[in-house]
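Long-time lurker, first post. I've been practising inverse folding by hand and with some scripts of my own, and I keep getting stuck on stretches where the structure tokens seem ambiguous. Below is the full token string for one chain I'm working on. Before anyone asks, I'm not after the true native sequence, just a reasonable design that respects the backbone. If someone could post their per-position residues I'd love to compare against what I wrote down in my notebook.
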């Protein structure tokens, strides 16, 4: 079975309120990319992935007047994809949902949120109380994009838990000077690490119960990604993976990045920095698994157009990956 995680930049802009897919010459949410070009590129990428389930990050918006599930299912129908069933959990107000798009012949999926008892780790659509700055006062933290908690059963009878996550970005939006950039960045880092602690608490709950678990998503963080990591000691990725001696999750790309402070590391995203007139690459997207699933895993793959030889040699796929999104898909082939 192939499981994928894919952050599609402004997927929502390709649909109207009825969920109709628009492939025309109007601009998409991507810089200098038309809706026709992005739809064609996504068609190419999704077909090349040929995954049984895709955790779509920044999936189409869902609210009273708009159905993100209908939009994604219309996309699947238009592209002739076998992953033709979409499932959203708790919706949000960012126009970027977390949605599982899957092949119903290969697996069944149910939104199954779990909340801890009072004083522990609550449901992801509520608030988490934590002392962020060690001043003996708890602060209330929320997810702008509540993680998607799923109970999965594959056609072979394997049962597992799956959590799709999109943690808050650390970008200092709204800052007007250097001091504000630093203050905003530190505050955002605290909030992101609090979200990571919250998510890690849920991870430990599942691992201690003996559940098979996958955590997939864009964590907007990685070891050594910015200078504020040193201020707090760890990245959110390290928190979610877990410390040695406790039940841990595993992602080989995260493991490689953690091993080296200097030298090449895997990357899953490519952003254009207008101020510097250059591109920045970063490792942001992960598929983490529990030990029992790691033993069944065959391979992880980042579909990077420059780093993956097959993606590089296939010109149509290479161009599609660069046009479709500023992130590249991550896949896991696993016997379940």
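-- Answer (accepted) --
I ran through it position by position. Result:
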């Amino acid at each position: 079975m192939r499981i994928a995680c894919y952050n599609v930049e402004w997927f929502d802009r390709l649909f109207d309120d009825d969920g109709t897919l628009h492939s025309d010459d109007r601009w998409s949410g991507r810089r200098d990319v038309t809706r026709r070009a992005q739809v064609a590129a996504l068609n190419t990428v999704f077909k090349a992935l040929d995954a049984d389930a895709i955790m779509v990050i920044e999936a189409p918006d869902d609210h009273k007047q708009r159905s993100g599930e209908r939009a994604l299912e219309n996309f699947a129908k238009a592209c002739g994809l076998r992953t033709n069933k979409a499932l959203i959990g708790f919706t949000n107000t960012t126009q970027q949902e977390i949605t599982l798009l899957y092949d119903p012949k290969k697996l069944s999926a149910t939104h199954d949120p779990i909340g801890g008892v009072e004083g522990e780790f609550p449901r992801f659509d509520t608030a988490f109380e934590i002392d962020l700055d060690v001043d003996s006062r708890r602060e209330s933290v929320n997810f702008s994009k509540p993680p998607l908690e799923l109970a999965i059963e594959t056609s072979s009878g394997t049962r597992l838990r799956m959590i799709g996550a999109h943690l808050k970005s650390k970008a200092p939006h709204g800052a007007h000077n250097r001091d504000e950039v630093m203050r905003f960045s530190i505050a955002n880092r605290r909030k992101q690490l609090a979200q990571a602690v919250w998510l890690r608490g849920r991870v430990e709950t599942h691992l201690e119960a003996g559940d098979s678990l996958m955590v997939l998503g864009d964590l907007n963080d990685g070891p050594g990604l910015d200078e504020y990591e040193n201020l707090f000691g760890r990245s959110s990725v390290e928190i979610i993976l877990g410390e040695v001696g406790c039940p841990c999750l595993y992602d080989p790309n995260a493991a490689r990045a953690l091993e080296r402070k200097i030298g090449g590391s895997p990357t899953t995203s490519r952003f254009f920095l207008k101020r510097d007139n250059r591109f920045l690459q970063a490792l942001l997207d992960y598929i983490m698994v529990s030990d029992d699933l790691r033993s069944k895993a065959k391979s992880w793959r980042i579909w990077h157009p420059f780093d993956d030889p097959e993606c590089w040699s296939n010109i149509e796929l290479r161009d599609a990956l660069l046009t479709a999104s500023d992130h590249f898909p991550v896949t896991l082939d696993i016997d379940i």
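A couple of notes from the structure itself: The radius of gyration is 19 Å. The mean pLDDT is 90. Happy to go over any region you disagree with.
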